[in-house]
Input
Amino acid sequence: MGICQSNNRRPLIKDVYWKLSMIDFFSIEDRNGDGFITLEEIIANTAPLEEHCSASTEKMKALAQGLTEFWTEAGIKPGKKVSKKNFLKGLSKLGEKELERESKGIPTLHSAVANALFDIIDENDNNQLSEKEIRNWMAASGLNPEDAVQIMRDADYREKGYITREELIESEFCSFFRPDKCMIQLGIRVV
Ligand SMILES: [Ca+2]
Ligand SMILES: [Ca+2]
Output
């Protein structure tokens, strides 16, 4: 403790906001509701993107590849059933490594996933995400497309009318590993 830590930040798993949002995430990803998550399940859950966002096989493959590298480092290895407790532990550990990489300017595993996801959502390949494209993404993810307006507001804070690649990557990374930063953006003070 203390002397061995590279900084003073609390582990993610000790952060109640992070934990609650990741428990939510677990429930969404555990589509068959057996209380376990598998890499295969996570990848299968992205399948509707192919139709809703008219994604090519290459784009879908890039996402599956990115997800495999990301989740494998969180301990969710191919063919392995992972409980909620181990999911949170693994993701928290991965988060520490990812934040370390981010601070050193090394590409994160998360950015590979977010880039692949961006390419899929960006149906017309113009390097901008329109509200319509965001709506299709949300529908494919089983979310309410009406919430696209909120997503646009959060990520497109300069109100350009579209989301850039950098904005999507930053906002996705933030929602995964920077609960403190997200809370500040939302104007919520964490006591
Ligand atoms: Ca499951
Ligand atoms: Ca577009």
Remarks:
- The two ends are 24 Å apart (CA to CA).
- The chain has ten helices and two strands.
